[in-house]
Amino acid sequence: MTELTETEDGLLPEPAVSEIELVAVLSALADPIRLRIVRELAAAGEPLACAAVPLPVSKSTCTHHYRVLREAGVIRQQRVGTARMSSLREAELGRRFPGLLPSVLAGG
Predict the structure, then answer these.
(1) What's this model's pTM, rounded to 2 decimal places?
(2) Cβ distance 89 to 75 under 8 Å?
(3) What confidence tens digit (pLDDT) does each residue in 19-28 have?
(4) What are the CA-CA distances from residue 27 to residues 23, 53, 55 (Å)?
(5) What is the distance between the alpha carbons of residues 62 and 73, in angstroms, rounded to a whole number?
(6) In the chain, which stretches have pLDDT less than 70?
(7) What does each C-alpha distance from 70 to 64, 108 come to in angstroms?
(8) Which DSSP string do the residues of the chain spell out, in sequence order?
(9) CB 49 within 8 A of CB 79
């Protein structure tokens, strides 16, 4: 993966669509906490602050889960003031791996 840096508009580092790897996405989605985050973001349909998704873990562990999802290319995060707003990269994942995200979201 190429070196990733935050952009001027506050977007945190994420892989380009062509660099998203299926193994990384599946690994990120294999964790129940991260899958819960993805389902909450999909249901919201709009960017959410990290704190808007109630998780039974510490703040540092929560940060770790969001970072894993972002670095795998599953979510996009942008700094807005002091908050990190997260959104699902649904369209991009759909282009890269058609049918994957709907299948994951439909699962029990």
Answers:
(1) 0.88
(2) yes
(3) 999 999 999 9
(4) 6, 21, 19
(5) 17
(6) 1-8, 108
(7) 10, 23
(8) -------TT-BPP---GGG--HHHHHHHHTSHHHHHHHHHHHHH-S-EEGGGS--SS-HHHHHHHHHHHHHHTSEEEEEETTEEEEEE-HHHHHHHSTTHHHHHHH--
(9) no
